[in-house]
Design goal:
By secondary structure, the chain is of the alpha/beta class. The protein is 35% helix and 18% strand. The chain has a single domain, classed as Vaccinia Virus protein VP39 (Rossmann fold, 3-Layer(aba) Sandwich), CATH 3.40.50.150. The chain binds S-adenosylmethionine (SAM). S-adenosylmethionine binds next to helix 3 and strand 4.
């Protein structure tokens, strides 16, 4: 693969050349730009960092990256999926894996976790619009909610009102665009 092809793939964000922690292909749900953006956002969150939470585990590769970030910052990662598809037992050393439906069975448990102040929440499950509507009001102050597949599975028209009503403001959009990330970050500053 030549360098121009590689750069073109990077520009396609999460829909192209996925690779993370030595795993390549569709087992990884995020692109290189998304990875850089997640790291950028978590790095800028103040201490103490509350919980790190992922909605939509898939095979747990991104989870392992988030778990390392969480451990570096003195916390842990909680991740949820409706099915257990975790790639390797190695992943399971790093995170709390919850198996259940975010829209029903694990809703109350997840609301309790995201109430933590200064929580990082990665919204990456099957129904991002519904999930944002259901969970936004339970997020604690300082929550950094990063929504994946922006302008593909979800856009501002779908969630503007619920995010405004619950004190979320769009942050770092210029950085996300510069990194070719398909994530957007909303920070809960106050209602
Ligand atoms: C796009 S993948 C997640 C990708 C992962 N975050 C990554 O970066 O590798 C979406 C996941 O959400 C899960 N999912 C879909 N609907 C769900 C629901 N209602 N509750 C919990 N998980 C769900 C799917 O099983 C799928 O594994």
């Amino acid at each position: 693969m030549n360098i121009n092809m590689t750069i073109e793939l990077l520009k396609k964000g999460s829909k192209a050349d996925r690779n993370l922690l030595g795993v390549r292909g569709e087992k990884v749900g995020i692109g290189r730009g998304d990875l850089l953006f997640l790291d950028y956002v978590i790095s800028r969150m103040p201490d103490p960092l509350g919980a790190v939470v992922e909605f939509g585990t898939l095979h747990g590769v991104t989870t392992s990256f988030l778990a390392i970030c969480a451990q570096m910052r003195g916390t842990y990662v909680d991740t949820v999926d409706i099915e257990d598809k975790v790639y390797s037992h190695a992943n399971k050393q790093y995170a709390y894996y919850h198996i259940g439906d975010l829209l029903t069975s694990v809703y109350i448990d997840m609301c309790k976790i995201i109430e933590t102040s200064n929580c990082f929440l990665f919204v990456d499950n099957g129904n991002k619009i519904k999930e944002t509507h259901m969970y936004a009001k339970y997020c604690g102050q300082g929550c950094h909610m990063v929504i994946h597949d922006w302008d593909d599975e979800i856009g501002i028209e779908d969630v503007r009102d619920v995010l405004n009503e619950n004190g979320f403001k769009l942050c770092y959009e210029d950085i996300s665009i510069a990194l070719f990330s398909s994530c957007r970050c909303f920070v809960k500053e106050g209602v």
